[in-house]
Design a protein that fits this description.
With 117 residues, the chain is mainly alpha-helical. The chain has one domain. 68% of the residues lie in helices and 0% in strands.
Length: 117
């Protein structure tokens, strides 16, 4: 169950990293440095360069692993309802995925506007 609920945590971390990095060039450079070592992050090959998205992937991976460990420690001795858990998972994934659409995210993440460009 912990692995299942770690996925929306990672997707939310990816979403937050994307919105904040797109708002600030300084933060985008920091995020890019985090994932610069990933193959394809830099270069002009046939696939081009994925640039700062590589750092966002690293942030999502770290969030997934960390949340998995934390959730495992909390959910270790429980026996959750699978049906209810799947419904919560799907709703969370839908809501987070919808926020990758910029007009929706602009409303949801209005607080990001305080970050200087």
């Amino acid at each position: 169950m912990a692995a299942l609920f770690a996925v929306p945590c990672a997707e939310f971390a990816l979403l937050l990293a994307d919105k904040i990095a797109n708002r600030s060039k300084a933060i985008e450079a920091i995020v890019y440095q985090a994932g610069k070592w990933i193959p394809g992050a830099t270069g002009t090959g046939p696939g081009g360069s994925i640039g700062p998205y590589s750092g966002k992937e690293i942030i999502a991976l770290a969030a997934w692993l960390l949340s998995w460990v934390i959730l495992h420690s909390f959910l270790r001795d429980t026996s959750p309802n699978i049906t209810k858990s799947i419904k919560i998972f799907l709703i969370a994934m839908l809501l987070i995925t919808l926020n990758f659409i910029d007009p929706i995210a602009d409303v949801t993440f209005a607080f990001v506007n305080w970050i200087p460009k």
